[in-house]
Amino acid sequence: xxxxxxxxxxxxxxxxxxxxxxxxxxxxxxxxxxxxxxxxxxxxxxxxxxxxxxxxxxxxxxxxxxxxxxxxxxxxxxxxxxxxxxxxxxxxxxxxxxxxxxxxxxxxxxxxxxxxxxxxxxxxxxxxxxxxxxxxxxxxxxxxxxxxxxxxxxxxxxxxxxxxxxxxxxxxxxxxxxxxxxxxxxxxxxxxxxxxxxxxxxxxxxxxxxxxxxxxxxxxxxxxxxxxxxxxxxxxxxxxxxxxxxxxxxxxxxxxxxxxxxxxxxxxxxxxxxxxxxxxxxxxxxxxxxxxxxxxxxxxxxxxxxxxxxxxxxxxxxxxxxxxxxxxxxxxxxxxxxxxxxxxxxxxxxxxxxxxxxxxxxxxxxxxxxxxxxxxxxxxxxxxxxxxxxxxxxxxxxxxxxxxxxxxxxxxxxxxxxxxxxxxxxxxxxxxxxxxxxxxxxxxxxxxxxxxxxxxxxxxxxxxxxxxxxxxxxxxxxxxxxxxxxxxxxxxxxxxxxxxxxxxxxxxxxxxxxxxxxxxxxxxxxxxxxxxxxxxxxxxxxxxx
Length: 545
Ligand code: TNX
Hints:
Elements: H1 3-20, E1 23-25, E2 36-39, E3 46-48, E4 53-55, H2 59-76, E5 81-83, E6 91-95, E7 106-110, E8 114-119, H3 122-135, E9 143-146, E10 149-153, E11 159-165, H4 173-185, E12 190-194, E13 196-197, E14 200-201, H5 210-213, E15 217-218, E16 234-235, H6 240-252, E17 256-263, H7 268-273, H8 302-318, E18 323-327, H9 334-338, H10 340-349, H11 359-377, E19 381-385, E20 398-401, H12 406-413, E21 418-420, H13 423-426, H14 449-453, H15 464-468, E22 470-477, H16 485-492, H17 495-504, H18 511-528, H19 535-544
Parallel strand pairs: 1-9, 4-5, 4-6, 6-8, 11-12, 11-22, 12-17, 17-18, 18-19, 19-20, 20-21, 21-22
Antiparallel strand pairs: 2-10, 3-9, 7-8, 7-10, 13-14, 15-16
Helix pairs in contact: 2-3, 4-6, 8-11
Ligand TNX binds at residues 329-330, 385, 402, 427, 429, 441, 478, 480.
């Protein structure tokens, strides 16, 4: 058979389609805005086309390259080939030889023959690739002209987080992966997974099977903001295999999954599974409503400490993260004040109320410290919500400031590392405008894009030492009123773009310039099929007319 005859038409077609493709121009003014963009006005651009090779010479870069090839395929209709040998020209080379103090710093060097993305680490190279991805002005069957020049970039904060609450509502593993892809697009590197709460325990613990057999299902759910309930059983949990798969999926995208086991409050689903862990012995139900439950772990019961150790044994097996979040928020002391076991524990530990804390607050510290020390033996550190400052806590504990900024400020002043997630700026369960928005959290003012963007995490009066204790910023998506993943996307986007700039971008802020960048980013949202709040851009268009 004459192969050349067979192949000729195919080749000719390929060649034709190559040259016929229009070319669009890339723009490095992405979200988050890179630190420095220096264009070589007279030099020829790099033409990214189906013949471009991605050069990756080690396994980490090969993973990066594979992800990049997928991203650009969505935006260009072609999937560039990955190779470990650089051709003479027309290649994008991935490296991580940059060095320096900032692990997430990268440079992109563009000329007519090649693009080189060099990161301090493979994660940093990945952020460079995200910049190249986001520089493409939307989806189409086109080539891309990358202007010649250099981009040098590094983030302001090392901890760039988002919380996703999969307890109040359950989201499938595929949805969790979509969430991870969305945060990766925004250079976010911590996924705070709120996986247990009063309304559902959603993490399989093999040594405590009832946590998911009983604790993952509630018999009904409160309807909207009424006092009425449906009677539809609601449940779901993540098997350990699913969790491992999600942790790996995130790691490939340079995201650390930080699980939160919220304790000693927010435990009613665990109490429904093991009623002997509560002060009254129950019975308890997996909670069907939202709010703060009085039913918390009994801090006077030794089996509670054994229970927590067992949970942490498996949590640390599943999650390699250096930090484990142990909650500590909203733990009413009502039952502890009346519980003979809790009061006996207070006595035996010699805990006394003083001007700073009540004896019960100190009892909570005792529980938190037990878990922190247990985790320390396994080489892990802990993060807790700002309430844990109330009973006194070791400075090795990272404080997550949610009731406002005061907790984080006080923590940093006292020598703790702190992560800022003040609800007034960072609660993405709050509505995006006063009018015309879907049902959302029933406390807090509207939180529009501009307000998120305006957040400055480091107070003016901070010394450089105190400022260094603010290790990052996070936005939280609590899901009481978020019954499906489309709605989760809507609440996240585009506010997550403003979050990304708060976390990443140094230097002065300019909201109007940001609006231009975020509007361009919505072309990527469109290409990915994301659901986001478009009204921000419609209003802009109307006022411009
Ligand atoms: C407060 S933030 C909570 C959550 C709720 C959220 C609703 C925090 C540590 N606790 O349990 O879901 O408000 O906005």
